[in-house]
Structures are given as structure tokens and as C-alpha cells.
Design brief:
Length: about 270
């Protein structure tokens, strides 16, 4: 089954030194994908600013148009991954005003902790004795995003901290079912699409975000749709891990539709 990859990063993302839009297009054609969406990072934290990592949205659009001309047989979707747009409203608005986008992902990477906004991926931040409280703070931040008026359709990598969870304190979604369901119900009320992020095909126990249990809760909470994203940061990882992800999504009650590049619906 060929599934569209709705979350791919290229050289225009600050954290993708091996990203390459043109090579990712070639990889998508090799795999026979019905479409690929280039959703480069638009992050605005102090850390990204210090690295001169703000998205050059004009250059991104120019590159995408060149790829569309070079690969007429591939459906190439424009897009962006907005990081914490509810905290950076003005900056996000500039990105969205720069040109039409087919896919807008809303994501939370950072949670408020001890007066600072900290990315969950920061080495050593998720500590065994604190991780439960930290994850609950992350989920609360995600609810704030979903209840905001910011423009995005797809909620990316719902339980993102799962990737960085300390080994000595295993991640068990059931321990956070109440908080996770609050996020899912907020997403359902908003009409959002829930992304299943395969994290470049890594071990699904840690890198399928979210996993099967939460996908079933999404269906129970009234979620309407699911998208697939590899979160590839280099062309070789495009669509990695999609077979297992598709099995989990089908088991949760969602299926492909007539449009091969569309979302899977209940």
C-alpha cells in the first residue's frame, strides 16, 4: 500500500544538514509515493535564533516551484511545521502570509518548566524522577495550542517526549490516559488531523508517535482523520516505517480514501 508522506524536512530546516528537497523528490518517485509534503521547520525559540535557523520562506517557495517543474509526475505539496505558534503568533503569521501552503502542521517541542521554555529533546532534561510531571506539562501546553486561534490543520507528533524518555522510567501511555484524552478531545473539537509520525522508521516502541493505544483513543474521542509523516531529515528516510504505522492506523478504525494523497478517515 502506497501512503503519502506528509512530513518531510529539507535543507530549509535548521536541523536538517543532510536535507535535500530535490533528492527527496527522487526518493519519493523511486518508492512510488502518491505525494510528498515538504513541511520545513518554522521555529522561533532563542536557541533557533542563536543558530541563525529561522526559515527563509521565500527561498523555500522558490525551491519548491523548481522541484514541481523538475518532477511533473510527482504531487509535491507545500507546507510548514510551525513550532509553538501560539507563543510566536506574529512570527507564524509572517510565514503563513508568504504564500499558499497545502499542509500546515502545528507542533509542540518545548514545554514551560521552571520559568523557561525547554525542548523535550534537550539531553538530560527528561529526568526519571521528573518525567511524569514534565510530560503532563507538555500535554497541557499542547491543549493550549489546540484551543488557540492559530492556523494549522495537522497536530504533529502528539507524544513527542516519548522519543527522549529516560530508559529507567519506561513510557506507559495508560498512566497518562486522562491527560492524553484531553488533548485528543481538544483536537477532535477543533477538527484537527492527527499525525502518526514514524520518526524516520526507528524502533516503534520509542519512535512511533503516537502508538496503537493512543490511536484507538483518537477514534473513541471522535477524531476524524489521520496523516502519516516520516519526519525525514534526509532523503533516505522518506516514508520509513509506514507499513507498521498503516497497520496500527487501520486497527484503530481509519482507512485510505479515494484520493491516494489524502488523509485516512474513520
Amino acid at each position: 500500500m502506497l501512503i503519502p508522506d506528509g512530513h518531510v524536512h529539507t535543507q530549509w530546516s535548521w536541523d536538517a544538514p543532510r536535507g535535500d528537497m530535490k533528492a527527496s523528490c527522487r526518493r519519493a518517485l523511486e518508492l512510488g509515493l502518491p505525494s510528498i509534503a515538504f513541511t520545513d521547520h518554522a521555529d522561533f525559540t532563542d536557541y533557533v535564533r542563536a543558530r541563525d535557523g529561522l526559515l527563509d520562506i521565500a527561498a523555500y517557495h522558490e525551491c519548491l516551484q523548481r522541484c514541481r517543474a523538475a518532477f511533473p509526475g510527482l504531487r509535491i505539496l507545500s507546507g510548514v511545521e510551525l513550532g509553538e505558534p501560539h507563543r510566536f503568533r506574529a512570527e507564524a503569521a509572517v510565514i503563513l502570509a508568504a504564500g499558499p501552503l497545502d499542509r500546515v502542521l502545528g507542533s509542540v517541542h518545548c514545554l514551560p518548566w521552571e520559568g523557561k521554555l525547554v525542548d523535550a529533546s534537550q539531553p538530560g532534561f527528561l529526568a526519571p524522577e521528573l518525567v511524569a510531571a514534565q510530560f503532563r506539562a507538555y500535554l497541557a501546553e499542547t491543549v493550549v495550542l489546540l484551543e488557540s486561534s492559530e492556523t494549522f490543520e495537522v497536530l504533529a507528533h502528539l507524544d513527542y517526549p516519548k522519543r527522549y524518555w529516560p530508559e529507567s522510567a519506561p513510557y506507559r501511555p495508560g498512566e497518562f490516559e486522562e491527560e492524553l484524552r484531553l488533548v485528543l478531545s481538544a483536537a477532535a473539537r477543533r477538527g484537527s488531523v492527527l499525525e502518526v509520525n514514524t520518526t524516520r522508521g526507528g524502533d516503534p516502541a520509542r519512535y512511533l508517535v503516537p502508538g496503537p493505544e493512543i490511536l484507538c483513543w483518537w477514534h473513541e474521542e471522535g477524531g476524524r482523520a489521520v496523516s502519516f509523516g516520516s519526519d525525514a531529515h534526509d532523503p533516505s528516510k522518506v516514508a520509513s516505517g509506514f507499513r507498521l504505522a498503516a497497520e496500527a492506523v487501520q486497527a484503530a478504525g481509519f482507512k485510505a480514501q479515494d484520493d491516494p494523497a489524502g488523509y485516512w478517515l474513520r
